[in-house]
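User: Second chain of the day. Same drill as before.
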Amino acid sequence: MVDVSSVAVLVLGAGAGSRYTDGDKLNAMLGGKPVAHHILQVLDGFSWGKRIVTCRSFAPWTNAYTDAGFTLALTEDVETGMLGSLHRGLTEIQKQTRVLICLADMPLVPHSHIERLLHLATRSTVPVIASSSGDYSGPPALCLTEHLRSLPHAGEGGARSLLPQADFVEQAAPAFADIDTVNDFETIRQLFNAFSA
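Assistant: Same format as last time:
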């Protein structure tokens, strides 16, 4: 496994959530805790060199992140999109050579998948090690910090332009299901309950 102290973990949680019509999706309760706390739990147990979460404002779900040693990178300008949020997080990183990008609204990622990304990094020479499942490719993704800093400072898609240079770690669906709408949340809630039964 790559030296985790050389890796910063960056959780993106500053999206506008405009398609989610029932309050703050990251604070929606799933399995007895907010949606945003599931990826936080998955990231626990690693000695990250730096921990950052982007968010639009202080919210009930952010308290657990500060308790876990995360820096809250406030980013109120949602017009800059995911790239703006990404760069806001990068301003908190000084010396870590890699960044693990995760999404706060992706509650089904298994802990073992993060381990597999870190293991692949020990033998990969590409700038990005991303996740894939069926037609999906993207976060969680382990990226060289210098490549992330070279991306545009505004726009959607995050680090997607780096994917043609990526190696991939596959995982069965629905590990990378995220929540954009209330219907997405209901689908994930049913899956979560089925897994927990």
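The mean pLDDT is 93.

User: Great, on to the next one.
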